[in-house]
Amino acid sequence: MVPTSYYILLSALLFTLGVVGVITRRNALVLFMSVELMLNSANLALVTFAMARQDVAGQIVVFFVIVVAAAEVAVGLALLVAIFRTKHTTDVDEINALKG
Amino acid sequence: MELIIFLITAAVAITGAVAMLLSPNAIHSAIFLLINFVAISVLYVLLYAPFLFAIQLIVYAGAIIVLFLFVVMLLGAERAEDTRERFAWQRPLGLTLAAILLGLIGYIALRGPTSGATVADQQFAAPERIAEALFTTYLLPFEITAFLLLAAIVGVVVLHMSNHAGSGG
Amino acid sequence: MTEITIPPIDWRVAAQLSIIFGWASVLLVIALFVPRSRTRIVGYLAIAGAIVAAAAGVPLWGVNAETFSGMLRLDAYGLTLNWLFLAAAAITIVLSLDYLPRQGIERSEYYVLVLFATGGMMLLAQGADLIILFLGLELLSIVLYVLTGFAYPRNASEEAGMKYLLIGAFAGGFVVFGIALLYGATGSMNLRAIGETLARQALTLEERTYLLAGAALVVVGFGYKVAMAPFHMWAPDVYEGAPTPIAGLLSVGSKAAGFAALLRFLVEALAGEWRIWAPVLAALAIVTLAVGNIGALTQRNVKRMLAYSSVGHAGYILFGVIAAGATGGVAGQRGVESVLLYLIAYTFTNLGAFGVLIALEHRGEAAWDMSDLAGLWNRRPWLAVAMAVCMLSLAGIPPTAGFWGKLYVFTAAWLAGMGWITVIGVIIAAIAAFYYLRIVAQMFMAEPAREAPLPMDRALQVGLALATLGVLVLGFIPTPAIDLVQRVVLGVRG
Amino acid sequence: MNGVPLLSIMIWLPALGALAVLALPRENVAAQRSVSLGAALLALAAAIGVAFRFDPARAGFQLVESVAWVPSWGISYTVSVDGISLWLVLLTAFLTPVALAASWGTVERQERAFHALVLFLASGLFGVFTAQDMLLFYVFFEFTLVPTALLIGIWGGAERRYAAIKFFAYTFSGSVFLLLGIIGLYLLHGQATGVYTFDTAAILASLQLGALRLDAGAERLIFGLFFIGFAVKAPIWPFHTWMTTAHAEAPSSGVVDVIGLLIKIGAYGLIRFNVQLFPATAAWAAPAVGVLAVIGILYAAWIAYQQTDMKRLLAYASVSHLGLIVLGIFALNAQGIAGAVAHMVNSALTTGALFLVVGMIAARRGSRELKSFGGLWKATPWLGSLTLLLALGSIGLPGLNGFISEFAVLQGSWRSPGLGWRYALPAILGVVLAAVYLLHMYRTAFMGETPPELAQAPDVRPRELALLVVLAAPVVVFGLYPNLLFGPMQQSVTQIAHGTLPFLASR
Q: What is the pLDDT of residues D344-393, one digit of tens each?
């Protein structure tokens, strides 16, 4: 048996990497990917706890998180496409008509 | 044995994540993210979550990543960020990680994940159980996701159509 | 194969939600048959839906029930907030009726999406389970991303939507990871079950670590949603870029819903850990107040100023949230009441202020600079009076709704043993009054910069009048609202 | 007759009148003037009715009208008068129609809104002086800010926006401390007695009966919070700068000065809350407050002497008067407090009338600079003589109203164990200085050579004459028969002074 804490450690590490990605990267697409990474690490934690407690609830939540992530990505990419058509960039620093 | 599988998978997942962060090319990032997702799906198998293993592969790896790739290519935005240098390490790294993952999956498929299991009820999260929970205990969130998806669809359609209306004049 | 039987459902609990979601779906179909030139009809229908849903809540007063395996709760708290959200949605739609065609972005889906957003808010108010809170949050957010990006052809709008989405998804990640850790610590996602587990004090050290880390992550996630500092930096950009009615809805509905969920989470699940989270939140509240109000002081753009001011108000609401968790005495109850009253007052006030901005806005031309307000008193006296009333209310000057809200949160915080943050809050309130006043001065005491005509549609007038009268009536006769919130007891205290 | 809520009628009539004025058509100026003046006169009649019903033989609050407002918090709409507030109510009721009539012909634009704001302000002032519930008091206290700031900011001079914002920012900042003090007192009282109420009388009773015992630190803290609020509003030196700016930039007709700035809410609050509720702390703080008051008297008098703008001169004069009032209040004996209240009334009358005079002659000359005036006596003898009367009243010439109240304040502070002659002597010097600067102003403006621009200046017009006579009448009456002024307040003042006695004696 692999101890639960190993899994949690791994998921925390991946979560941190996702946060770092969101903070450091400027490409909107990569930002999205980093957010997906965060969600996935959370899912991993949920599944781990579900296993540790022999409880299906954790896995169910993962299912919902995946649905939400898909919806979010769909809307986000639609927005991105719309912006790109007018501005031809995905660099969030260039999306700066609002800076001030 | 299980610990070794875990450690290897974890290493692959972390490497994938780090490589995703470091790639200046959005396509490469997406592929490394894919590797990470697959690694996590392997962990799901270890954690007795066969249903999520499938969902993870189908929805995340299959749909979301493909959507990403599709948008990247559609927009031609793969190098929107930093185009100066191109690392040579990405291709071999990606191939190696993928090979490791394939090996792991093959091993698990042959041996089964339950090498040293002390789990009382291995079927606690069988797909039927999940289905039953979804339609009884978790009926409300299930319904909400329906509306959530509906709202998202409407939103995407609206954004797309307003874009047309705008470019049309 | 086991037979799946759907458990019985107490439809009273889900009545308002069902009406809103059901009506929104029906409207989507109806919208197909409404010609593009008469989209307004869908708006009227959406308002009718909101009114029906609000009316459906009246006989439910006093009901305290749960359904969907304890995930959805109907109590006076949720019901009061539902009414508030429905009122906010209705006023937003009324304000939009004229705005959308003027901006050339009228589409029937807009009204449907506002209803969906309202449903999301109601889920946040009624949800008794972390899953519901998460899904409600995401539903609300996703709809708001779209609505923020609605103001095509203004590029800024789409960019604001994108910015909001990235931040929102980021915050969502925090919430999910927090939920995971809380689940790991307590084995449940039901708020009350978590509270009971904590009350038994049977957690191991490892589990306590998970618990605190998870709670912190959830608070951070909701912190983004309600724009508390230091998670507020998106707010000015998004408010400025979003269509003005949506900026109004963002500043009141989304914030109120976020606080509703945060309060329920902290009080029902984490009341046992009050000693730990209260000082943390108190520090955040002070930072929020400082950042929001200092930021607002430096703005010349009124929309951005309102964004910073709404950050500042999050700080005051936090006072009430902190007090709500206090155990023993009347402080906790007072805290819950104060948050509700503050939200009610703030909702009407801010919608009024954004309504005035809508009236000033013309197609393709933003009129948000301070100088655009100059001499408004000479051009449109009633518009200036409405704005002045809202500004005074935001500043907390009696006799307006905002005054009672401030009085209530200060009293609650003091009772909770946090006299010192009350003092800081009061001092900052005095500083904050300055920039609200600057707007009043600009409207009444400066000469008009230009004599552009300000056509006002009947709907806009009605919406503005509703909001402003709400502020004044609440200011002069606060008793009904206060009595209402005083009957609200969060389920767990019952 | 006893069932008629006279106080509430008096408070709300002006506000109703304001709404009525706003509903009138913009062009019909005559109707606007008559409606607003009518409302103000009716309020005056109600105030006189209150005065007749008032029983001067009784101390404490009378004619209580009470309706629950927010019962669950113990907030009620409770209004009443005692001997002190009676005079301030009468003063307000008296000055409102005067101010309205004085504004005729001086307001160039939006006269309708001007009248409405003056009436709203009157309602707010009535409310402040009659509110017996602390929170109601605070609501009215804040409510007076908005019309005053707008009156200055819309119709004022060149720097009007700055002055209005400064006025608002200062007094609002002060008043949030007041709010904090009110909340604190409310909660401490509630926690100690279990009765959560904002009723001043109830809290006073608890304090006196010992049901609510504050330790010295808490009492001083709350006293300090109240004090900051009222000191800024009053204004006590060094918080006075908003006031001189506001006077200088207020409409030059002097209307706003009369009604908005000279009626001493802050000083009233000091008596009503600081001294009455916390006699021990008041005795403890008296020497320090006395120092501030004396500095204010001398400093403002000195600055006033150097002014060349007549409105600024009067502004500093009123700050100097205020110092005298505060000194009287913190003498903490019956003479001092009675003198202070009387001086509030007297200085509002005389200084207010002088502000109107300045407005009148400034309108004739188109300037308020002293050096552009001279020899007005020859051109306008009637105006000159009335002004002399008012100025002498303000200086404190025996036989006119200022003398008796200044004398009472000085005597009170001399005898007070907390203050003594060290405070009274410099205050006397300040009174002498007042004579110097006012007479200096009078001599420069009315005596000497008449500049050609003023040779043809018309003498006082009938409306102006009526205004000045109305204002000068009490100056003479109170001067000749001071008991009229002191009589009704005697019992209330004695009661307050009685409360401070043990603490003063122990010094």
A: 998 888 888 888 888 888 887 777 777 777 777 777 888 888 888 888 88
CB-nearest to C392 from D146, D164, D183 is: D146
Nearest to C412 by CA among C400, C425, C399: C425
The 3-class SS string of D168-211 reads HHHHHHHHHHHHHHHHHHHHHHHHHHCCCCCEHHHHHHHHHHCC
C-beta atoms of C397 and D180 within 8 A: no
Q: What is the pLDDT of residues D219-277, one digit of tens each?
A: 888 999 999 989 988 888 888 888 888 888 888 777 777 777 777 888 999 988 988 88
Q: Does residue D212 lie in a domain region?
A: no
Interface of C with D (CB under 8 A): 377, 381, 392, 395, 397-399, 403, 407, 410-411, 414-415, 419, 422-423, 426-427, 429-431, 433-434, 437-438, 441, 444-446, 478-479, 482-483, 486
Q: How close, in Å, is residue A72 to chain C by CA atoms?
A: 7
**Averaged over D440-444, what is the pLDDT?**
85
Instruction: Name the neighbours of C, counting chains with at least 3 Cβ pairs within 8 A.
Output: A, B, D
pLDDT at D506: 64
- The answer to whether residue D427 sits within a structural domain is yes
CB spacing of A42 vs C176 below 8 angstroms: yes
Strands C72-74, D75-81: pairing is: unpaired
- Are D394 and D354 in contact, with CB atoms under 8 Å apart? yes
- Of the CA atoms within 13 Å of residue C139, those in its CB half-sphere come to 32
Q: How far apart are the first and last CA of chain C?
A: 42
pLDDT digits (tens, 9 = 90+) for D55-105: 888 877 888 888 888 888 888 899 988 888 888 999 999 889 988 888 887
pTM across the whole model: 0.90
Per-residue b/e over A26-59, b at no fewer than 16 CB within 10 Å?
A: ebbbbbbbbbbbbbbbbbbbbbbbbbbbebbbbb
- Going from the C-alpha of D209 to that of each of C201, D64, D195, D213, the distances in angstroms are 47, 22, 15, 9
Chain B residues with CB under 8 Å of C109 CB are 154, 157-158
Tens of pLDDT along B17-35? 998 888 888 888 888 999 9
Number of domains in chain D: 1
How big is chain C by its Cα radius of gyration, in Å? 22
Does the residue D339 lie in any domain? yes
* Domain ranges, residue D487: 278-507
Distance between CA atoms of C291 and C286, rounded to whole angstroms?
Answer: 9
How high is the pLDDT of residue A98?
A: 46
